[in-house]
Amino acid sequence: MAQETAEIVIIGAGMAGIACARQLAAAGRAPVLLDKGRGIGGRMATRRVPLAGVEVSFDHGAQYVTVRDPGFAKAIATAPGSSADWADGAAEPHLVGIPGMSGLPRALADGLDIRLQTEVISLSRMPDGWQVQTSTGTLNAGLVVLTIPAPQAAHLLAKADLPGLAVGKALTSVQMDPCLTLMAAFPADAPRPFVNRSDTDDPLAWIAQDSTKPGRTDRFVTWVAQASPGWSMRHLHEPADAIAARLLPRLCDRIGADAGTALHVSAHRWRYARVRTPLGRPFLHDARHALYLGGDWCQGARAEAAWQSGSAIARAVLGIETAA
Ligand SMILES: Cc1cc2nc3c(=O)[nH]c(=O)nc-3n(C[C@H](O)[C@H](O)[C@H](O)COP(=O)(O)OP(=O)(O)OC[C@H]3O[C@@H](n4cnc5c(N)ncnc54)[C@H](O)[C@@H]3O)c2cc1C
Q1: Closest C-alpha residue for ligand 1 atom 13
Q2: Is residue 55 part of a domain?
Q3: How would you class 192 by CB atoms within 10 Å of its CB: exposed for 0-12, middle for 13-18, buried for 19 or more?
Q4: Distances (CA, A) of 32 to 6, 144, 295, 299, 304
Q5: Any domain includes 30
Q6: What is the domain extent for residue 306?
Q7: What's the pTM?
Q8: pLDDT tens profile 43-79
Q9: Are 254 and 214 part of one and the same domain?
Q10: Are residues 218 and 116 in the same domain?
Q11: Which amino acid residue places its CA nearest to atom 7 of ligand 1?
């Protein structure tokens, strides 16, 4: 992409960006998705680790998705085999990606024009549209849709220095918490006291036996544990190894495992993980600058909320076009 032109550029190939792009593409538009990550799906993420000749996966971002929205259910139905119910004992079905969480967004993004490992460095408003500067080149676009976490969007727009930008204040009202996540694998005969557990008073607010999800290897017992927002904030700037070393004994204490038998231990730092204070509406729109913003931060801390936000943006874009 040395210098290219696209009608619509969507920044962020997570659930919100994918939902938006799918609907625009289905209506005959040609959106280009840019993402700085190596894989599709954003926080619907899977870490793969080679262990004793097999690949072990950890869902170190979203643990499962709920499917309450008919449009989301319909989209999932178009991607058979990419998700399945997790028998975790919850009253409401919890759907997980196959073979890992990222399998679902990857399948939903099938056929879309997605440029990975393409970080948007800056945005500039030109008389006839946008100039999007990325780590791999420049893209000119008529319309920009930002589906990245609100604080990151605020940062990009602040650099763009747009006179009269209408969305800045609303964007900075959104608050997102960090989450430090531990991944650990044990031999198949290690204790398995529960499938998952949530305890907001515990520094390990969520613990899940990842290997109980459908489609995962049964050669190991794997766990994903998430530190509480407060603990995560306190230790956010420590190296990943130090975070893992702090969290492993806590996990072993809760599951009755011997830390010395762990076959794999690592940690991931999510700076903007969960929405604490959402926007309270499905998206932001600045008509003057041909700009839309969305993501889970609009209405809730869930992948489905991200999907709904991206879908709402697509409907608005298409609605504008219909009315014109
Ligand atoms: C630890 C954790 C646990 C969670 N558990 C659950 C759960 O159990 N159930 C649930 O429903 N939800 C859960 N969530 C929330 C869920 O993952 C999110 O709500 C959802 O995935 C957000 O989708 P999104 O498209 O809004 O944003 P994201 O998934 O964050 O996508 C944004 C994308 O933008 C890209 N990006 C950012 N900046 C740039 C840039 N400058 N240039 C290019 N690309 C950029 C990123 O790489 C990313 O891929 C969890 C999240 C975390 C972190």
Answers
A1: 62
A2: no
A3: middle
A4: 7, 10, 17, 25, 22
A5: yes
A6: 3-41+109-174+278-323
A7: 0.97
A8: 999 999 999 999 999 999 999 999 999 999 999 999 9
A9: yes
A10: no
A11: 62
Look up the CATH number of the domain holding residue 126. Answer: 3.50.50.60
Residue 176 has pLDDT above 90, yes or no: yes
Say how far apart CA 25 and CA 153 lie, in whole Å.
24
Task: Count Cβ atoms within 10 A of the Cβ of residue 256 and give its class: 0-12 exposed, 13-18 middle, 19 or more buried.
Answer: exposed
Q: Which tens digits make up the pLDDT trace of 20-48?
A: 999 999 999 999 999 999 999 999 999 99
Ligand 1 atom nearest the C-alpha of 152 is: 38
Is there an atom of ligand 1 within 6 Å of 130 CB?
Answer: no
For ligand 1, the distance from its centroid to the CA atom of residue 260, given in whole angstroms, is: 33
Does 246 share its domain with 306? no
Q: Are residues 36 and 129 in the same domain?
A: yes
Residue type, 10: I
* Residue to substitute in 33, 92, 148, 266 for testing ligand 1 pocket (most ligand atoms within 8 angstroms of CB): 148
Q: Is the pLDDT of residue 296 over 50?
A: yes
